Amino acid sequence: MKDEWNADEEVDKHTWADVVVLQSPTNWMGFPWIFKKYMDEVYTAGMFGKMSQNDGRTAETPKKNYGAGGLMQDTKYMLSLTFNAPEESFNDPNEFLFAGKSVDDLYFAQHMNFKFFGMQPLPTFACFDVMKNPNIENDFKRLEAHLVTNFSE
């Protein structure tokens, strides 16, 4: 990801796309700071008419439907993530850090950002243990199978 971007052009790319694929390392349990900056700038530029109409609430119901104003219901997104953590550290209540939580639980806030815009999730893809015990060949095979499963018609 480059350091500078045109927020309006990036919004146009999102609204043009049928699927937005986000490939990212996991840094401190989420996206790296540069991608958070990108989201802050680009997704804020997409508010109020391009990616969302508003936050979903109306003057008549100001306490209901927060987050339901998205305009991108026909757009899907997929998270493709890398972790230093081994796969076994997820979905196991006996594991110390994640305590039974999944990758998607860890990325809940990011999923909510896309839901806010009305986008539909595709299954998340993840590569695990990429620093201490990488299995790159197998990861590429799993990615290919994931893409075939989710993008073939």
TrEMBL record:
Pfam families: Flavodoxin_2. Keywords: FAD, Flavoprotein. InterPro entries: Flavodoxin_fold (IPR003680), Flavoprotein-like_sf (IPR029039), NADPH-QR_MdaB (IPR052397). Its cofactor is FAD. Residues 7-146 form the Flavodoxin-like fold domain. Belongs to the oxidoreductase MdaB family. This is Modulator of drug activity B. It comes from Jejuia pallidilutea.
